[in-house]
């Protein structure tokens, strides 16, 4: 007796209710509501609202066997041993229930391994989410976060394992998940492996001689002026390789809404587009400049650690992405470096990155590589920031000053 899976575009065949039930539970999420479950045995075509009704119908009306014979076992084992068909979302559906639906020893071992793997994924995710939420609290230092993490393990996790009488394998899985994040180095390694952390690159822009205090006494020494730049090419490629982001951005640029003006509606963007072929992918971005003081809540006027930050954003992205801070990228340097060095010296490394973006970078979308050109369109900031970055006077003693300055690139 042979039975074909009822799920659309699934061609798997089964010889027992146990193997069919296991397939529905793992591959197709047993509790997921499809449009219909229907009987495929000898063209019966009776429909059901859920998989349980279908299985009961096969058992009572068609007397479909619960167990498999040896030759069918081999076929079903070959079907089950395909982890590539199983998604992480479906693994959660087999907790504590998989052994009730199979009598095949090989199948039990396979499902047990799936349960262990799913438990590792869940525990890693829980410990990681707990730690990241602690790190989001600016009032908590790293040493306090480490103490909290240790106490949670010693005072909560370990006692719960004893109360619930976990077996040794479960305890080992929990301990391994805990030790994956018991140091800052391991946490950063996990985030790097999951592509959740991008470290900035410290670049020395100049060496200068100034007063230093190595032992508390002032002497003349060499000072390195550095700026920290995020790998913008890598970040841009990662962002636009996500699902539908590039497609939605291009759709908004090409299908303009009436009375909804954007930077791509201006004459300058039309001039830039003429320099490229019609099939070239162009994405505009903006550069915003401002100072902030991380150690002074009253402002950045007199802070010794004042930071000059350059922010990059994409004005043509969908609005729900523009409102998220995750899609604003920064390039930082100490404001003191701007005062002690020529402004062009500080900006030359940033300009190099922008030139690479303008020449185009590879973005992988649905396993296809596309070349995308990112064009700097606007420089934004307050009066002081714009005057500083554009080389104008930074004094505000005059009675009149320009709220906004609009010049063509050729004039500037």
TrEMBL record:
Residues 3-33, 37-67 form the C2H2-type domain. InterPro entries: Znf_C2H2_type. The keyword Metal-binding applies. Keywords: Metal-binding, Zinc, Zinc-finger. The keyword Zinc-finger applies. One of its GO terms (molecular function) is zinc ion binding. This is C2H2-type domain-containing protein. It comes from Polypedilum vanderplanki (Sleeping chironomid midge).
């Amino acid at each position: 007796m042979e039975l074909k899976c009822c799920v659309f575009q699934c061609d798997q065949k089964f010889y027992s209710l146990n193997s069919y039930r296991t397939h529905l539970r793992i591959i197709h999420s047993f509790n997921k509501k499809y449009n219909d479950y229907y009987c495929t045995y000898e063209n019966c075509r009776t429909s059901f609202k859920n998989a349980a009704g279908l299985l009961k119908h096969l058992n009572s009306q068609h007397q479909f066997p619960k167990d498999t014979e040896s030759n069918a076992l081999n076929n079903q084992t070959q079907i089950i041993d395909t982890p590539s068909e199983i998604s992480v979302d479906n693994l959660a559906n087999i907790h504590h229930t998989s052994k009730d639906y199979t009598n095949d020893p090989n199948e039990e071992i396979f499902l047990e391994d799936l349960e262990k793997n799913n438990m590792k994924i869940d525990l890693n995710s829980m410990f990681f989410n707990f730690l990241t939420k602690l790190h989001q609290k600016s009032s908590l230092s790293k040493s306090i976060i480490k103490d909290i993490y240790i106490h949670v393990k010693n005072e909560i996790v370990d006692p719960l394992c004893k109360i619930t009488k976990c077996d040794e394998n479960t305890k080992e899985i929990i301990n391994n998940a805990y030790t994956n994040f018991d140091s800052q180095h391991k946490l950063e390694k996990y985030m790097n492996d999951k592509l959740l952390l991008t470290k900035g690159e410290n670049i020395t822009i100049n060496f200068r001689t100034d007063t230093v205090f190595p032992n508390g006494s002032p002497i003349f020494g060499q000072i390195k002026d550095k700026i920290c730049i995020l790998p913008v090419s890598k970040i841009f490629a990662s962002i636009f390789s996500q699902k539908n982001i590039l497609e939605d951005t291009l759709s908004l640029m090409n299908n303009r809404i009436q009375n909804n003006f954007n930077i791509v509606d201006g004459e300058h963007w039309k001039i830039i587009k003429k320099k490229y072929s019609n099939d070239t992918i162009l994405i505009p971005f903006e550069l915003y400049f401002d100072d902030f003081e991380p150690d002074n809540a009253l402002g950045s006027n007199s802070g010794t650690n004042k930071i000059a930050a350059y922010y990059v954003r994409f004005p043509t992205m969908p609005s729900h992405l523009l409102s998220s801070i995750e899609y604003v990228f920064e390039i930082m340097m100490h404001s003191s470096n701007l005062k002690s060095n020529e402004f062009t010296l500080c900006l030359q490394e940033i300009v190099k990155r922008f030139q690479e973006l303008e020449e185009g970078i590879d973005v992988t979308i649905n396993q296809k590589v596309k070349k995308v050109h990112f064009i700097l369109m606007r420089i934004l900031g307050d009066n002081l920031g714009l005057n500083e970055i554009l080389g104008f006077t930074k004094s505000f003693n005059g009675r009149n000053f320009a709220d906004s300055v609009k010049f063509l690139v050729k004039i500037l």
